[in-house]
Write a structure and sequence with these properties.
two-stranded antiparallel sheet, about 50% helix, mainly alpha, 2 domains, globular, about 5% strand
């Protein structure tokens, strides 16, 4: 009897082990997929590259192998960097009207708005690891050289209008030195002294004749690439609708020339400090000492415009939604 029970138990254990092994084998086999089943369900194509592209009235030949490969790298990066490029379009709808107006007034080519895109992706609060700040990424010393105030209470590198006019001063002065706008753009990244030395030593006429650090070589071609995409968004897969953009916030301007508590000023206009600060990023503290009684222009946002209303949306460039 005992022997029969032992034989029964042994047979049961063996059968159980066989079942478990079979289940594992079946489970493992069912998890394996064929190459066709694992195929990625999307198409990735190399972006379109035109034969040439204009920058500040100059035609850049993209049939030259070196130019084409540089442009290809940057147009591919922007095309498949979907989230960043989408944000650029949305931010441009707010900032391009301001930048374009100033560029025109300062007689700087309109294409330099794309330089701001490359510098910061139009992030008005951008600060680099080297402490360059604002839309145009001025270092503190350079900002002061071009008339911008930089203190613990005020940093005009974050003032869109003032910093754009300061950048225009740089561009115009550099154009006097180089006589070529593409070289001016490269100098904004590498520095005028570096470009002057390389032009002299390499006996080149402009940026496209030079062998420069990779960052600067990429910089100019990134400007060209983002211009191409923002001029022809659908060609590169960017399909935007009017409602994808934010309505503008209307602002009135007041002038102050006394010490001020920004929190109290905000409350006076029914705003929070954060709302006032968002329209005046150059404000760097809760108060302004202003011992010299300087005059500052302060943007006061219209509180009613804080609510999203698609009826108020205006798309700056109709090409973005065609």
């Amino acid at each position: 009897m005992k022997k029969s029970i032992l034989l029964y138990i042994s047979a049961a254990i063996i059968a159980s082990a066989f079942i478990v092994a079979s289940v594992k084998a079946t489970s493992t086999t069912s998890c394996l997929k064929t190459e066709e089943e694992c195929a990625v369900n999307q198409q990735i194509t190399s972006p379109y590259i035109p034969d040439n592209i204009e920058f500040c009235g100059q035609s850049i030949n993209l049939l030259l192998t070196g130019n084409r490969e540089q442009f290809d790298r940057e147009i591919t990066a922007f095309t498949y960097g979907h989230s960043t490029t989408l944000l650029i379009f949305k931010r441009a709808n707010r900032y391009f009207p301001i930048i374009e107006k100033i560029l025109k007034e300062e007689e700087v080519p309109d294409d330099f708005k794309y330089l701001a895109v490359v510098e910061t992706m139009l992030n008005i609060r951008a600060v680099s690891s080297a402490k360059a700040a604002g839309l145009w990424q001025f270092m503190e010393g350079t900002a002061k050289d071009y008339g911008l105030e930089v203190t613990s209470e005020v940093d005009q590198r974050y003032d869109i209008e003032l910093s754009t006019r300061a950048a225009c001063k740089y561009f115009k002065k550099a154009y006097e030195d180089f006589g070529d706008w593409s070289t001016v753009a490269a100098a904004y990244n590498a520095g005028k002294n570096r470009l002057n030395n390389d032009l002299e030593k390499q006996q080149g006429e402009n940026f496209f004749d030079l062998w420069l650090p990779e960052e600067t070589m990429r910089y100019v071609f990134r400007i060209l690439a983002i211009k191409q995409i923002m001029t022809h968004p659908k060609t590169y897969g960017f399909i935007l609708k009017e409602e994808d953009f934010s309505p503008s916030i209307q602002e009135s301007i007041i002038e102050i020339n006394t010490p001020i508590n920004w929190v109290e000023l905000a409350q006076k206009y029914g705003l929070t400090y954060a709302q006032l600060r968002a329209s005046n990023v150059w404000i760097r503290d809760l108060t302004l000492t202003n011992r010299m009684n300087k005059t500052y222009r302060v943007n006061i946002p219209n509180k009613a415009d804080f609510k999203y209303d698609c009826a108020r949306i205006k798309v700056h460039d109709s090409n973005w939604i065609k």
